[in-house]
Specification:
Two copies of one chain form a homodimer. The first copy, chain A, has about 300 residues and is of the alpha/beta class. Chain A is built from nine helices and 14 strands. Chain A has a five-stranded mixed beta sheet, with helices on both faces. In chain A, strands 6-12-11-10 form a four-stranded antiparallel beta sheet, with helices on one face. A three-stranded mixed beta sheet of chain A has the order 5-8-9, with no helix packed on it. In chain A, helix 2 packs across helix 9 (about 285-300) and helix 4 packs parallel to helix 7 (about 230-250). The longest helix of chain A has 20 residues, at about 230-250. The interface of A and B includes residues 216 and 222 of A.
């Protein structure tokens, strides 16, 4: 099947590109380490050209649809944010079109979404996944959780994003594990048999007392000094405590439907477990599937 | 007046020593950068000898009373923790006595305090300040707040410590300011005119929603992107948010009496302000005064 257009998810640290058939099937894919954070403005067209060179493209005009950090102010060309509440069906209409050396290639960069009322916030990339989720499960209304370095929690009503928040959970885990006094308690293998026990205890503490995070963190240090807790227990506890605290902060917005979880499978499985401990439930969503569905849905409204 | 004994506060990064008269007046003082974290076990006697060399000591047997990290397991000689609840009047009785090259010098290292019930926790050094506070204001019962890298909140009943907790507030501020994505928003002068406005807004957000810390932190990034908030505003907000969150987590344990605040004057003034915003009050306590009073009180019970 011939490639009809190319979809790209351009993140801060890398990018992924898919060659897609007319009906949106993946015909080929490519990736590169040239994320937004490593490029000057002038380097973007060449980084894209390089990635396109890995795909078996037809000898004809080509359409490329990009979501993510390429549209940031410090990226290729700023794609101004849509503002919540907004219908993500308008994503394509907000696209910007930077020039390519090859005039046969038309690039569209999709906007991110910002929020100014009810807590200032920004996203770039997740909005396309949310549009994809909405187009695959059009009836869904409720919270969506996107675990990661900066976890997003968005309230969807069909293709409409009502509001969202960002929790710095993943980044906090890395900071505390590598740079804080707690690193002394995690100096050794972190994936040992006590990791699970620590995770459950941390998640319980986070769910029970999310306001006490700054105090509960130090329990890791004390437990390693007083009870000889091992590095794997401590790493599990830290992970559980942070995820439990994050979920508790969103708990009263979670309804009876399973919360869609979009992100890495291993991380989403941890969130699903803590959602269950909190008396809620989750369902795993394939993140590649929703980003592709989102690029396809957005493409239909590019003018 | 001749020096009758020497009191030492031996921290992780430095140490302070005071030459004291028979009634506890300061006759001379000295300090050194040779904190516990920079010394091997064998280097402690020499580091102390060096500091004592800066004091005009009498030519007679000398007593040295030390509190703090010299008594940690990785310090000079481990002084096993007293366990809460406990009477700090017993601090001296728990001292250990490492040998000095000069047999005329008798060293006593005071124990720290640990907690195993109601949240594992540890302190080394603060217990001596608490004993000092109790001996200066013997009628006080209630919470004591010791702001710092790892803030301690202790419940005292006279000289008795009932329980305590530790909040990693100061360390979290440094980590987030220097190592997280928020550093991009604090790249510039941090003590500008907008710092105060940011501090008040952050403190209010922390007091109102302490369970939302992981989410509220990201507001700094969004506010700098969307509203052009300056580095000084962002630094103020981060400081206020963390202190507000810490105080909110302890709010329901704070009574009508002003909370004694032991720590650096500038930091304690910020805590006092947020206590006021929370409808409580604080009073500044001189930290050198209480550590000296604590060393003196502990000395009386060394056997």
């Amino acid at each position: 099947m011939a490639i009809a257009w190319v979809g790209v998810d351009w993140g801060t640290s890398n990018l992924r590109a898919w060659g897609l058939g007319p009906n949106g099937t993946v015909e080929a894919s490519a990736s590169s380490e040239k994320g937004m954070g490593k490029l000057t403005r002038e380097q973007f067209p060449w980084a894209l050209t390089e990635v396109l060179g890995q795909l078996p493209l037809p000898d004809a005009p080509l359409e490329v649809v990009i979501c993510g950090m390429a549209g940031a102010r410090q990226g290729w060309l700023e794609a101004p944010y849509l503002e919540t509440p907004t219908d993500l069906g308008a994503l394509g209409a907000g696209a910007v079109h930077p020039a390519m050396p090859d005039g046969n290639i038309r690039v569209s960069i999709l906007p991110g979404v910002c929020q100014t009322q009810g807590g200032e916030n920004v996203m770039r990339g997740e909005e396309t996944q949310l549009l994809g989720l909405a187009s695959l499960s059009s009836a869904y209304s409720g919270l969506v959780c996107m675990p990661g370095t900066h976890s997003k929690w968005a309230r969807l009503e069909g293709t409409r994003i009502v509001s969202f928040s960002t929790a710095m959970t993943g980044e906090m885990f890395e900071l505390l594990k590598s740079h804080s006094v707690l690193r002394h308690s995690m100096n050794g293998p972190l994936d040992g048999p006590a990791q699970d026990e620590g995770f459950v205890e941390g998640a319980r503490d986070g769910l029970d007392n999310p306001a006490g995070l700054l105090g509960q963190l130090f329990k890791i240090r004390a437990a390693s000094l007083l009870s000889g807790k091992t590095p794997d227990w401590c790493a599990g506890y830290l992970s559980g405590l942070l995820i439990g605290t994050e979920i508790a902060a969103n708990r009263n917005q979670i309804g009876a439907d399973p919360v869609p979880l979009i992100g890495s499978g291993a991380l989403c499985a941890l969130y699903m477990r803590v959602l269950n401990m909190a008396g809620a439930s989750g369902r795993l969503v394939d993140s590649t599937e929703v980003v592709l569905a989102g690029l396809k849905a957005a493409r239909a409204s590019i003018s």
